[in-house]
Amino acid sequence: MTVRSRITAPATLVAGALLLTACGGGGQEAASAVPATTQPTTPAATTAAATTADPVVMTYDGGLYVLDGQSLEVVKDIPLPGYNRVNPAGDERHVLVSTSTGFRVLDAASGTLKTDEFKGVKPGHVVRHAGTTVLFADGTGEVTMFDPAELAAGLPKGETYKSAEAHHGVAIKLQNGELVTTLGTEEKRTGIMALDKDLKEIVRNEECPGVHGEATAQDEAVVVGCEDGVLLYKDGKITKIDSPDEYGRIGNQSGSDLSPIVLGDYKKDPDAELERPTQISLIDTASGSMKLVDIGTSYTFRSLARGPQGEALVLGTDGAIHVIDPSTAKVTKTVKVLDEWKEPLEWQRPRPNIFVRDQSVYVSDPEGKQLHAVDLASGKVTKSATLPQPPNELTGTVAMH
Fold it and tell me: Which residues, at least 6 apart from 115, have a Cβ–Cβ distance to it below 8 Å?
């Protein structure tokens, strides 16, 4: 079933504890969250408020920190009980906060958590591409699409698409108006389909068990992960790229408009309670091939990022950022930032994160209650700051180009 509608008015908060869905483990793990009460904001008040340079946002148990991205000073501590998640909204000042009831709008530049909210049951993936931000609500399968440039004026008008069935999914809107979205149910996720600008189906592929995550490479090649490879959507066609192992799960990916190659994780033990992989995958969307690279250390679903020149970056449990040339599949540089650490068994527990904006790489350290800024060009830690509470998720404002 397909439903298309317009979003016309801000939603109000509804108290209660619902579930947030994991975006990293690939399962349906969840944690409860209870939203905090905040005062309504207006565009005029937001504009008049003091602005923070290149804001960085971190979650902790009980709230959010907003930091100045240059000085790493905590400029705002926002109480927000429950397990919350954060993603760039797609413009230069906003971040989306996933709570129990939907996607809240945080004006990170002014440190203001608005009452503006995209309602959603089990809010999941947030995807930014080609001037459109796309939200996926796992509890209903509803996809919400909007222009993030409109966030300063209130909750944007947008469009919605309703998946046939609710599932832990993801969607992305392309430059030509096409929508690529996942297929599945609460029990089983199977593949993807592409829809035209009128939301009519173009093509589908359901040979992707456990479909999870997405990334877009050069020339708008879309890669979505499977338990035995990936699906590639390009030029109106879907192609399966198989993993070299019978079970070779790629559930988290990171892409760059400057490279045809997508960086992915790689797990090959279907029976592991928690696999700590040392191999990463490089999916070439031009040739339709895949390479595996052993970086000599394990990593987690919050370890993958891309540099300003399309470099593949992996934050290892050895405490170093491993810089990989995706075209040669060679590690070109390692930057030591943290002491060695170990991934916790529960995906909601804090672990180091990596966030990249231009040449600046931010790395969180929950154990040391710190945030570090790294200059990628020099490979040096340029700034460190100590936080009141151990940080969990890490993000910041990133405008789409």
Answer: 10, 12, 13, 38, 39, 40, 41
User: Angle CA(291)–CA(292)–CA(296) in degrees, nearest 5?
Assistant: 150
Contact 18, 119 (CB under 8 A): no
Q: What is the pLDDT of residues 323-356, one digit of tens each?
A: 999 999 999 999 999 999 999 999 999 999 999 9
In eight-state DSSP terms, residue 36 is P
The residue range of the domain holding 109 is: 4-396
Can you give the CATH number for the domain in which 366 is found? 2.130.10.10
Q: Which residues of 18-44 are buried (b: 16+ CB within 10 A; e: fewer)?
A: bbbbbbbbbeeebbebebbeeeebeee
Q: What is the pLDDT of residues 374-384, one digit of tens each?
A: 999 999 999 99
What domain count does the chain have?
1
Whether the CB-CB separation of 251 and 213 falls below 8 Å is answered with yes
Q: Which of 245, 241, 14 is nearest to 120 (CA)?
A: 14
> Does residue 401 lie in a domain region?
no
For residue 228, the 8-state DSSP code is B
In 137-223, alpha helices (H): none
Give 174-216 pLDDT, tens digit per residue: 999 999 999 999 999 999 999 999 999 999 999 999 999 999 9
| pTM score, whole prediction | 0.89
The pLDDT assigned to 53 comes to 84
Helical (H) or strand (E) element with 43:
helix 43-48
Residue 279 pLDDT exceeds 90:
yes
Q: Contact at 8 Å (CB) between 54 and 357?
A: yes
Query: In angstroms, rounded to a whole number, what is the distance separating the alpha carbons of residues 240 and 223?
Result: 10
Distance set, CA 295 to CA 314, 344, 374 (Å) = 9, 20, 20
How far apart CA 142 and CA 120 sit, in angstroms, is 8
Q: How far apart are the first and last CA of the chain?
A: 33
In a domain, 368, yes or no: yes
Of the two residues 364 and 25, the one the predictor is more confident about is 364
